[in-house]
Design a protein that fits this description.
It is built from 6 helices and 7 strands. It is of the alpha/beta class. The chain has a single domain, classed as Oxidized Rhodanese, domain 1 (3-Layer(aba) Sandwich), CATH 3.40.250.10. The strands form 2 sheets. A 5-stranded parallel sheet has the order 1-6-5-2-4. It is globular and about 55 Å long.
Length: 139
């Protein structure tokens, strides 16, 4: 009887360990700058909050205001990116205030919606570490 109760606990443990070790694709600022300058076809998914987005964002970004992408309502804000991907198949760049937890949460959600890893990237350092501030749309 004890053997049966251990199996579900072991499965839960393994799933949690797998989540901890999930890997993400990061895009360095210089590479992203090159993509912008060469007009690479891509979907920019910005998860910044409304006031942050208004203050600075990339032209053509999908404004989601989904940060930190934890609740179901915040995740629903990313469905427009899923629709855009389903229409075009373009690479997705997730833009976050600092390129951390919100970006990872967005990445995981988009992946759960069927977007493959090779199509998902996170802008490393987010808007905060973006060195080319003149390329941003500002309020």
């Amino acid at each position: 009887m004890k053997r049966f109760s251990i199996i579900p606990l072991a499965l839960v443990f393994l799933l949690n360990v797998a989540a901890i070790f999930q890997s993400y694709n990061y895009l360095e600022a210089d590479q992203f700058k090159e993509w912008i300058e060469t007009d690479k076809a891509m979907i920019l998914v910005d998860v910044q909050l409304k006031d942050e987005f208004a203050a600075h964002h990339f032209s053509g970004s999908i404004e989601t205001n989904a940060f930190p992408v934890k609740t179901d309502a915040q995740k629903e804000q990313l469905l427009s990116a899923v629709e855009a991907y389903n229409k075009t198949g373009h690479d997705i760049v997730i833009i976050c205030p600092r390129g951390g937890g919100g970006a990872k949460n967005g990445y995981s959600f988009l992946k759960s919606q069927g977007i493959p890893d090779e199509k998902l990237t996170i802008l490393k350092g987010g808007i905060a570490k973006w060195p080319y501030k003149d390329m941003l749309v500002k309020k």
